[in-house]
Structure formats: C-alpha cells, structure tokens
Amino acid sequence: MTPNIRPTRRGYAVLAVGAAAFVAGAVFGPRALDAVVLPVGVALLAAVVQVWRTPAPTVERRLPPADEPGASGVVEVTLDAPEPYPATLRDRLPAGVQSDSIPGGDATTGDRDVAIEATVGGETVSYEITPRHRGKHEIGPASVVAVDVLGLVERTHAVDTRDAVIAFPRVRALSSAVRADLRTTSQSRSAAGRDEFDNLREYVRGDALRDVHWKSSAKRDNLMVQEFTADADPERVTVAAGTTSADGGADAGGTALEGTKTSEGAAEAIEGEAKTNERRGETSQRRAETSERAADATNRTSADAMAEAAASVCLSLVRDGVNVTLATPTGTVDAAPGRTRDLLDHLAVATGGAVPNRSVDVEIVAGAESTSIRFDGRRHDFETLVDGVGDGAATESAAATTASQWGNREKAGERAAREAQR
Question: Could you tell me if 101 and 127 are in contact, meaning their C-beta atoms sit under 8 angstroms apart?
Fold first, then answer.
C-alpha cells in the first residue's frame, strides 16, 4: 500500500489565498502577512499531520452468489484499521459490471470506480452490482481516501485487494419432448453397450424379448434371458461444444458480449465505425483495428451462445439423473446430480474454438447467427429445442432455481465460517 498526500480542491483554493496574501504582505507590509498567511500555514500543517497519522486500512469484500448475467447482487465491504476515521472508499469495477453507484452506470466503457462515504473501523458499507456479461469479473483494487476535518488535504491508501464475481451462462429450459430424447441417449448407450455375455437368468416381466435365449429356454421349459457386461457407463452422456470462430470467449475480466443477437449488432456497429473512419480520412491502421474488433465481437458472442447451449443441455441431463462429461476448447469437466458447480464455473470462462471431440453423444456448434445441436443422429437448431420460445418464463425459472440453490449453499457456508471465527 502506497500513501499519497495532496491538497483537495478546497486546499488548493486556500493555498491560492495564502499565496495572494503573501504577495500582498510583501507589497503592503508584514501585517497582511501575519493576518492571512500564518493561519493558512497552520491550518495546512495541521491537516497534513492529521491525514498522515491515519493508519493503513484493510479491505474485505463479501460478494454476491454467482448468478446469470443481468442478475443484481450486493457487494458488502468492511474497512478495518487500528483507529477509526472517516474516509471515502473507491472500489474498482471492471468493464461488463454495472452499478447504480456510478453516475451513468454504463458497463461498457472500461474500468470505473464506485465511490462510497464510509468510516474505517466502523459499519460495513455496500453497493449493488449487475454483471452484464458471462465471465469472471475481477473487482479491485480499492483505494481509501482520508480527508482532514477542514477538508484541505487528503491521503489515499491504495489497497491491492481483488475478488472475482462469476456470471454463469444463461440456462434455458428445454421442452419435455427434447428432454425425453436426450434421456434416450443414455438409454441407447446402455442397449448398445452389450460387449460380452455375462450369464443367464429367468425372464422377468419387462425384459426385452430380444434378450431371450431360446435354446436354453426350450431345454428348461422356462424363458431364460441373457445378461451382458458393458464397458461404457450407460448413465453417462458425453457432450462436446465449440464454435465456428476460433478465438472467441470470455476473458479473465469477463468482457464477453451478450447473446447472438448482440453479436450481430456489435459487429455491425464496429464495422460502421470503420466506414466512418474511412470517410474522415483516418489512417489504415485505425481501420484495421476496428475491423479486428468487429471480428472479435462476433467470436466472443459465438462462445457465449456455445456456453448457453451447453449449460442448458448438460443441466437438463443432470436434473434427469444422468452423469455428464463436457468437453470444450477450454478443457473437460464432469457433472452429476448435486454436483454442477464445476460445470457452471467452467462454462463461465470457456472460450470459443473447434469442437474438441466429435465422437460424442451430443455435439454443440455455435455460430454468429445460430447454434446447432446434434444427437440421435440428427442436427437441431437450439432455439427450436427451448421450452416456450418467445416466452422468458421457462428460462427465468431455470435460472432462478440454479441461482437459488447456489445462493443458499454459499450463504450457509458463510454462516458456518462466521460461527467458526467466533
């Protein structure tokens, strides 16, 4: 932490008055100097001493639970120091995170600071944030600005404390018919996984007739059924996801754009900027930069569409009791009933690229305009698989369920940690 002491606007005004008084004293005599300059000097010296003595604070944040883009949450900040003093907290927010505490609240203009009046060593202060894009958004560093009682001098304590809030990809509810078709993927694997004969047993109502061993049945006068062993896990579905653009994705700062529709709009807007620059006679380098940004916007939103489709398909399977292995250009992750956080964390930062493995049960390929999903030997447009297309109720219900589950678990963990500290 590096301290920085400087006058405030009021302090600069007082310095200007003192300088004018000093000049007047030199012209009209020392009485003018004594009447103004000395009080100004004493006040500034006292202000410097007061802020210099403020101890360096510590900053501790409590972040809201991970949720989908557009969901608001509260960041609670605790400032602690050996001695209390009033100050202004400035907390750095990354691009892609909006806050009502910032004038304008624009989430697309780069890093901005939230400014909150606080008391170091006093009560916890808070502010609301809304991640606008999928990704891992880093909050921080922070600075604590202490001002003397007259408001003449301020000292800035820089605190390099950073925390990350995660925005999951949007989860959309699939129609009941599609969920049934996906479930048959694991069931067909079970039927297909008849690697070698295991044993014979008596027929039980519900057994498939194709498994009846007719020769043994004729000898024993009872229907006998064959059982087989399977190397593959019949209750696990493999999913692979990728994009038609190679370099898309949410970076460490979470600066991915929203949705495939936003992709087209962002790309067109930036391409329009390139044309405007050309009309104004700007350099070819500038035009190249804007064209590159247009391609990057398309790529990143393709990755968002990939993450949304993968999250929706995988969570649908998991909710139906099926284990899932997902492969993306970023890596591989497993999910099972009651264990989906790793999958959501993975998809929050997954980047675009070629589908890593095409020998899978379900293949997802996202482009700038549409996302296709292949299973049961056919390709489907993702939008046609969503329950209640055009009606956000199903989507909001799925999102609320996921967020509520993880919010409750994280709050329970926080309560346990506080009890342990006590």
Answer: yes
Rounded Cα distance, 88 and 151, in Å: 12
Strand pairing of 236-243 and 362-366? parallel
* DSSP letter, residue 209: G
- 234, 193 Cβ separation under 8 angstroms: yes
Say which amino acid occupies 307.
A
Q: Domain residue spans in the chain? A: 6-52, 58-169, 196-229, 236-258+300-414
**pLDDT-based confidence at residue 300 (cuts at 50, 70, 90):** low
The angle that helices 284-319 and 260-279 make with each other, rounded to 10 degrees, is: 180
How many angstroms separate the most distant Cα atoms in the chain? 131
Q: At what angle do helices 38-52 and 9-28 cross, to 10 degrees?
A: 150
Cβ atoms 274, 116 nearer than 8 A: no
Alpha carbons 153 and 135: distance in angstroms, whole number: 39
Question: What sign results for the dihedral spanned by CA atoms 169, 170, 171, 172?
Answer: negative
What H or E segment, with its residue span, contains residue 86? strand 85-93
Ordered alpha helix ranges (H), 231-283: 260-279
Q: Quick one: CA torsion of 101, 107, 108, 109, rounded to 10 degrees?
A: 20
342-401 pLDDT per residue, tens? 999 999 999 999 999 888 999 999 998 899 999 988 999 999 999 864 333 333 444 444
pTM (2 d.p.): 0.68
Which DSSP helix (H) or strand (E) runs through 52? helix 38-52
d(CA 269, CA 280): 17
Q: How far apart are the first and last CA of the chain?
A: 29
Residue pair 248/295 in contact by the 8 Å Cβ criterion: no
> What Cα–Cα distance (Å) separates residue 346 from each residue in 308, 340, 378, 379, 395?
12, 10, 27, 25, 20
Q: Cα-atom radius of gyration of the chain, to the nearest Å?
A: 31
Q: Which token pair is 265?
A: 């709009």
User: Does CATH number 3.40.50.970 belong to domain 58-169?
Assistant: no
